Amino acid sequence: MSIIREKEKDMKIVNNEKGKVKADHYTPSSPSKMNDSIILKKRHCITNLKTLTPHITCLAVHRNLLYAASLNLINVFELTHYSHIDSFNQSPSSGFVKSITFTNSKVFTAHQDRKIRVWLITPSKRHRLLSSLPTVTDRLRRCIVPRNYVTVRRHKTRLWIKHSDTVSGLAVNERFMYSVSWDRSFKVWDLLSYRCLESVKAHEDAINAVAVNGDGTVYTASADGSIKVWRRDGEAKRHKLVSNIGRQKSTVNALALEGGGAGLFSGGCDGEICRWECGKNGIVEMETLRGHGGAILCLIHVAGLLASASADLTVRIWQRERGSTNGYFCRAVLEGHEKPVKSLVAFSDAEGERDSNAIVTLFSGSLDGEIRVWEL
């Protein structure tokens, strides 16, 4: 029953604005009149991968391995020859896997059952469960002190180190990991001790996405239509709100940082992508990218390219025109999925963020259970 409820909640996001968005589709000029830099010459699908179960919820890449979460199961593929080498988290009781992140030989996974699990990558590229967060030790040392309990709903309390709803996203920066949840909070974890250091009541509704840049600035996006910016106070060792990026027109589902953290992209149920930059008066909106005909479900930025996945069954590739300081333009529309595209991940052979000769390999995962591999 829990998996059915999760499907329903996911599809509310997918279908919330479906059919209501009037998209301004990008229409290219005649090729003879266009700068060659405007056209992505390679955008073909190399291959497609199938998992044993449908509903791809998230993708991740680490150490030449592709991780694909399908329902509760996490499938691992070797990228050299796209062969399936491992599956882990066979327990259906964990519910959907919502996010995957890494530190060296450790894998961290976020789950519908409100837990974060820690896995070890063995030398044989198998995965062994090490712990779940919060750890038993952390729970025991805090459970005897009444002030460590917070009210999560009427007549119900919980230790503040525990999430009380689905853990929807994870992000890692140096020695800290940040988790966000549909319980409207984000938590900060020490990656050495696995202890929960802090819990912040961040939004008025479910938090759908989190991103952290190199200087430790944390961005959270919520179903309440807001994006908030947080920084850690070194003396108090607590995160404080430094900016609230207004109220968007709809639920915010996805975030992506531009190379180096200079800019931020957000996407929501209205099918629009907003690009934000930090100005003299705080974070300001620089432009709005239109073209999708359904909710934005995922965003990633790699090698100067922005990729967006949508409930309209497509992936769009956006890029600045070479030598221009103008905004982003749609360079390609990737089609072929039969259901909403829920997740993206990519890697590049580029030495720099804006290497124009880079070859980017992009993976798109859909609710149809298919993973498509694209070369850009």
Automatic annotation (TrEMBL):
Domain of life, source organism: Eukaryota
Protein name: Protein JINGUBANG
InterPro entries the UniProt entry points to: JINGUBANG-like, WD40/YVTN_repeat-like_dom_sf, WD40_PAC1, WD40_repeat_CS, WD40_repeat_dom_sf, WD40_rpt
Record keyword Ribonucleoprotein present: no
Swiss-Prot/TrEMBL WD repeat ranges: 160-199, 200-230, 362-376
SMART domains for the chain: WD40 (SM00320)
Keyword tags: Repeat, WD repeat
Annotated source species: Glycine soja
Classification via PROSITE patterns: WD_REPEATS_1 (PS00678), WD_REPEATS_2 (PS50082), WD_REPEATS_REGION (PS50294)
A Pfam family: WD40
